[in-house]
Amino acid sequence: MTSEQNEPESSDSMRVFGAVVKALREHTGMSREELGTLVHLSKHSVESIERGRRLAGQSFADAADTALGGTGAIREAFRSVTREKGLAAWFKQWAALERDAVALCTYECRIIPGLLQSPAYAGTLFTEQLPALDDSKVEVQLAARMERQEILRERLNTQYSFILEEHLFLRRTGGAGVTRELIDHVLEVGRLRNVELQVMPLVQERHAGRDGPIRLLETPDNKWFAYCEGQESGQFIGDTKVVSTLQMRYAKMRSQALTPEASRDRLLSIRGAL
User: Fold this and answer.
1) Which residue pairs, CB below 8 angstroms and at least 24 apart, start in 32-40?
2) What is the phi/psi pair of residue 236, to 5°?
3) Residue 59 — φ and ψ, nearest 5°?
4) Using an 8 Å Cβ cutoff, are 164 and 204 in contact?
5) Beta strands of 110-269 (E only): which ranges?
6) pLDDT per residue over 62-98, tens digit each?
7) How do 195-200 and 234-237 pair as beta strands?
8) Is the pTM of this model over 0.85?
9) What are phi and psi of 52, to 5 degrees?
């Protein structure tokens, strides 16, 4: 099961962390909107963190602690979140870094990445998951998936690059209607000035991504990390030599994939044929 199929569930330490943030915010008389302005998040994102539904990053913990008195309580509570067992360690590391990244690069050949999924497409993935999820779990997972997408618009200084295989759209996951909505959603996200979207054509004689999906990110201090996923496991990669190899492959794929303009035309053509 990949992280794109299953968002991290709310944990005890996430709820405690959120409760600490809420208590200190209310003690200072600050609204969620006011705190959000100081930490560069929407008031809805602040609410999600306070309710323990959203995994915060180190930058949020540092900024919120400073904004709410500088007592160190928020930073200390955040350490408990990052130490907690249960949520896969590789995903905790990646999710925390993703929140603060200045660049995110994603090549996917299995499913549309979570950051680009439309509600109906994501809902199809969750309802068809095996073992099956009950309705309440599907609703929680779907809400978490849609919330996570807020980083695309909240962090306009973060550059997002996506390379998606054409067959992901030709598969028609969920049916023609779901695919139309998905393409419309992906095209809308692709219009954001910090998002670059490329389609890898179905026929491609030379392909640097034959070994599978690639995820790369750059931190504010210009360090690069990567991760790879399997059916029931994931690997966080910090080894600079391995990361460098994945960067070279990703760079090659950017030259092999369709340009953003041609990718948009290809998606519109696929949509027109549905």
Assistant:
1) 35/64, 35/67, 35/68, 38/63, 38/64, 38/67, 39/63, 39/64, 39/67, 40/154, 40/155
2) -85, 130
3) -65, -35
4) no
5) 159-165, 195-200, 214-218, 224-229, 234-237
6) 889 999 999 888 888 887 765 544 445 556 678 778 8
7) unpaired
8) no
9) 75, 20
